[in-house]
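Hi P.,

Sorry for the delay on this. The queue was packed all week, but I finally got your sequence through. Input first:
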Amino acid sequence: MALDSDSKKWLKSRFHNNVKFDEPMSKHTSLRVGGPAEAFVAPENIEALKALVTWSWQKKIPYLIIGNGTNLLVKDSGINGVVIVLTKCPKTISQTDINTDWVIVTAMAGVRMQTLCSFALGRGLEGMNFAIGIPGTVGGGIMMNAGTSYGSMESVLESINILLPTGQVCKIKKEKLNFAYRKLSWNKEQMDVNRGQQIVLDGCFRLHPSDPEKLKKEAKKILETRRQRQPTSLPSAGCFFKNPASGKTAGELIEAAGLKGKSIGGAKISSKHANFIINHHKASAADFLALMELVEEAVLKMFDIDLKREVKVVGS
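Then the structure:
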């Protein structure tokens, strides 16, 4: 365990009802699995977040940042240290730098992706429709360069503000951001911090004025397509594996390996979309891990392709 009694007292005195100890992570992930977080803290503002991160960093207590837990598989053993959830921090969206060609929209990390999409749609701003139906928060979407066949964060993200473990806030512009498939990074060594996680506080997006009715029709079509192709009635984490750079998609490979509909315990590969592993019936994290490893081994053996996980596995 990472927390001693003095650490727990400090957390309780600083965050009151916004801290819980031994909190089941199954309550906070879209897969509905996961053991207890040693401490689960929901700061209500950026100053409280800074205080918590700096305290954790100085005391060398590990901390994990989450939003809605939509891309997270937490092991049954749980998480040592502090889990920090950003969804109680201010969830503001604002417009700046408005002109005839483009508008900069700034959204805080804890804002739901769908809220940002709705904001853009309501103001006739083009650029965010690719994210219609993507679960989770803006912060998570930025960190994984979330996207679909219609586009990705890379196409609209102009800059981010990040919080360093020291409590400093730094702005990183697009030219300093390294975008890859389902991944975003930047040169952390230049931030002069040797340990501790750097946290995305917000993102600035360059969007373009367009015909509101056209955008709404497009969004409706994208949503209908997602509902037809993807399972939505049972808990999942969205696409479990990244698509290989070329050839068949991860879902096509899993289906070709004969694993569509395969289950272990309460975890099941969706019969609707083979790259979705769903919580079919009271699954444990161990069920998901076993099924994940079965998929990886089968695809490697049959196609000599090493599938990369899109879902982040965490836990002690």
